[in-house]
Q: What sequence folds into this?
């Protein structure tokens, strides 16, 4: 079984009826549109996919983000945003 790596820091998310999401422990925003939000958290990169996504709160100093819309998926990876972006660029220039 693979060993799970986590970084230090608190990270919490609250999802209400798949329509309201609040997150703590966010360190950076990678990209954002109405269908996908890519965040770096203290526990790794989080990709949020859905429809009609709107940020209602963004405070990176406190590490807090809130959004509304229809949430289809929450996907974590152990990568950082830099590693994730490097992987995408690497695929483009192969």
A:
């Amino acid at each position: 079984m693979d060993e799970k790596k986590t970084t230090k820091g608190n990270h919490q998310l609250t999802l209400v009826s798949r329509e309201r999401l609040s997150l703590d422990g966010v360190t950076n925003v990678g990209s954002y549109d109405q269908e996908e939000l890519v965040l770096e958290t203290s526990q790794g990169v989080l990709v949020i996919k859905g429809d009609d996504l709107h940020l209602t709160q963004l405070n990176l100093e406190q590490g807090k983000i809130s959004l509304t819309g229809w949430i289809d998926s929450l996907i974590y990876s152990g990568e950082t945003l830099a590693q994730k972006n490097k992987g995408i660029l690497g695929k483009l220039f192969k």
Notes: DSSP finds one helix and six strands in the chain. The mean pLDDT is 84. Residues 81-92 form the longest helix (12 residues). The chain has one domain: 12-92.
